[in-house]
Amino acid sequence: PDPRVSGKGIERLRAAGIEVVVGVEESACRQLNEGFIHRIIYQRPLGILKYAMTLDGKIAATSGHSKWITGENSRSWVHQLRSACDAVIVGGNTVRQDNPNLTSHNPNSPNPLRVIMSRTLDLPRDARVWQTDDVPTLVFTEVGTEGDLYQHLVNQGVEVVVLNPLTPSQVMAYLYDRQLSRVLWECGGILAANAIADGAVQKIVAFIAPKIIGGQGGPSPVGDLGLTLMTDALTLERVSWHQIGSDYIVEGYLASKRE
Question: From its phi and psi, is residue 205 left (phi > 0), alpha (psi between -120 and 50) or beta?
């Protein structure tokens, strides 16, 4: 769908005497290139929301403890997913509570750009994501946060960008301008809901573990979307699922409002 070429590549190959067959494994080809295709059509990266939850829909215990919901095989699969994405986004709460690395955990695999969204920059000075010798980190914040931590991050080699307002759609627009095609949202429920509502998420990858943790008010993967009727629930399309170890992975796509 790229207007810069629009089939001219096929013409040039055929003109050079090379046989070109089109329409073969079209579905698989579109799946493989979905990030590029989405970027060209919508001028935004493809947003993928990934989360892991228990069978009763919790992403952590009521204490906030969440290591580990899924098994080692699932976590390895997540690392592969990260390496296939151009950026991974989390919010300030994830940095404060989990202190993640947000890397592929494989020295032979590429690492995504680590993106942090924080309106207040109320973040720990010693977070792992500030270590930028091998993997870059980009922080989005709002006007008025240029204090001590701001300068500390700059000194650490962290790129800090001020957006006003700071919203998921604004972040995706910025990342589009940076030539990114696939963006992985690994955030908590509040930011996940905001990203969905703001049109920044198109694909869902959910890991479901055969565990029950219970707990009144335990955190769920998606926060308040303002939906009060089950008939208003967002339905996934092109759903697939498979088992990995004792866990299940469900993948699907949110219906695009622009289609």
Answer: beta
Quote the CA–CA distance of 197 and 223 in Å, as a whole number: 10
With a cut of 50, list the residues of the chain below it in pLDDT.
Answer: 258-259
Phi, psi of 208 (to 5 degrees): -120, 120
Which CATH number belongs to the domain containing residue 202 in this structure?
A: 3.40.430.10
Q: Which long-range contacts (CB under 8 A, 24 or more apart) does 126-131 make?
A: 127/95, 127/99, 128/99, 128/100, 128/101, 129/95, 129/100, 129/101, 129/102, 130/156, 130/158, 131/156
pTM of the model: 0.90
**What is the extent of the structural domain holding 48?**
44-254
Kindly report, residue by residue over 42-58, the tens digit of the pLDDT. 999 999 999 999 999 99
Is residue 134 in a domain?
yes
What is the secondary structure of 50-119 as a DSSP string?
EEEEETTS-SS-TTS--TTSS-HHHHHHHHHHHHTSSEEEEEHHHHHHH----S-S-TTS--PEEEEE-S
